[in-house]
Carboxylic ester hydrolase
Amino acid sequence: MTRLILVSAGLTAVLFTSQTQGIPRAGFAAREATPLPCDAASFAPFLPPEAAIENVVSVPDGGSYGEGVTINDAYPWIPTGLPALCAVTVRVTTSPSSVFRFGLFLPSAEQWKERFLAVGNGGFAGGINWVDMAPGPHFGMASVSTDTGHNSTVGDTSWAFDNPERQADWGWRAMHGTVTLGKALTEAYYSRAICFSYYRGCSTGGRQGLREIMHSPASFDGVVVGAPAWWTTRIHNFITRTGMLNLPASSSSYISPTLFPLIASHVLSQCDALDGVSDDIISSPSLCTPDLTPLLCPAIPTTACLTASQITTAAAIYAPYTPSTDPSTFYYPGFLPSSEVGWSTLLGGPSDPSPLGTAYQRGFLLSDPSWPWQDYNDTLVPLADAADPGAANAANVSALAEYAARGGKLLLYHGLADAVVPPGGSELLRARVVDEAFGGDAEAVAEWFAMLMVPGMEHCRGCAEGTAAPWNMGGATQAAAMGVGEWSVPGYRDAEHDVLLAMVEWVEAGRKVEGVVATAWKERWNASSGVARQRVVCAWPREASWDGVGREEEPGSWGCV
Ligand SMILES: *[C@@H]1O[C@H](CO)[C@@H](O)[C@H](O)[C@H]1NC(C)=O
Ligand SMILES: *[C@@H]1O[C@H](CO)[C@@H](O)[C@H](O)[C@H]1NC(C)=O
Ligand SMILES: *[C@@H]1O[C@H](CO)[C@@H](O)[C@H](O)[C@H]1NC(C)=O
Ligand SMILES: *[C@@H]1O[C@H](CO)[C@@H](O)[C@H](O)[C@H]1NC(C)=O
């Protein structure tokens, strides 16, 4: 048995220098039918001293595995109907004050297709994301997920106070260590080299995938990121400031969340047809400039109208974030028309901005758990840019060019109705790649970077109730949203409909992703209710175009132009 090569130098030196380019791949014998026994003794010899096996469990075909709500606050869901696999949990010490854990699913040697998959997390959630690992073994992939070095729910950063080591684990180190050790254990288990490595994650998970290839371009061959919160030092400040646009609830400019659907349906009536098809979906929100004055309250206000100061609040939600002292300085894009129903997440109050913002200022930036958000001001943006706590920003586009140069592929998808992470941030990242790393050559970028902007999709999954905008396309968290036994798009588990399988075709068969067919169900999260609509989402800058003949609900009536 080849002993893998995480020898004496110790984890910090071996795993966390930028020189480390994955695991040596030479020296494996030809295909061996028998993997190691699924027990702790098999794996322990392949770990460095800083790492220890916590748990090894053999899961039978059709079985389930996870930690459940008593152990895992962040990801309590237990995937069911798994193929036979070996589930491994590892604990890794990264400093005297920080530890991360990761989980690894290893399908049977017969089912393993020499593929590796890492999956991401969401917000500040600290837990192994078992349910997002589950699709991996169904696709012949060994899969890993890390708790990112803490145990908490999505908006809790109490673990980060005054602890730069834990911040670094969340920022990049736990993912990098998980990928490195996960690959080592995978190759040891099968005594075979991994041929193809993938990543899939959304939101924070999108950031994690980008951050990892910026650190180590060789980590993956194909990366699928949704709604990436890549610009950490901006997005969490943007979120706090956006919440404050609609506070306090006693102010005359406060828009009650009960009015968000009214604004949504007004904007829909104004803008639906601008993209050429009246289908209750705003497919080109950039063509839409909402005019809310028709909603202005009459002399005797009704419950279905807006005051002038509420209209001013709404305008600020669409506008980019610029510092009040200098409106010509850009801080972050605003939300697009069609996002209105989703405003309740960040702007629904009633008393505080979302912890997705304030937990960053409190836990990372100011290390002050009792910092009052009322003290927020625009100077926190440059402060965050300069400090970048945990080195979490995934903003280095030159490093993405290195990833491209060694053949890596990137698929980014983002819902245009996203009201948590503005889709403009993804367009900005792509524009920076084109301009700063490829000298303006958008076609060269399109060879390895496909960006799919999904009309009507909200943050990572779903569409506004009643709109039936096709969204289900195999993005991170989407299978689990349909049920803990699902691992792809129900009934459509193929490369035409699932972004991860589309990426596999791109990497392994050279078929570039031009578009993926997204699905909406009659009841949002219920595949048994039947398909409401299917429609291709095209790689930017092309957009889906109706042929003007076929039923608009049918995928065959649409092409990319
Ligand atoms: C995470 O914290 C919860 C309490 O909130 C605890 O019950 C659980 O055991 C912890 N999990 C781990 C892996 O430490
Ligand atoms: C901005 O906020 C920070 C953090 O609350 C505070 O330290 C700083 O004094 C504030 N600056 C201004 C100009 O108000
Ligand atoms: C960005 O990545 C490139 C290529 O890996 C590297 O040379 C450079 O130092 C990085 N820049 C920053 C600011 O980290
Ligand atoms: C899903 O839809 C089916 C078919 O309409 C229905 O029988 C079932 O009750 C629905 N499930 C849920 C959880 O609503």
Remarks:
- The first helix runs from residue 11 to 15.
- Residues 234-390 form one domain.
- The two ends are 53 Å apart (CA to CA).
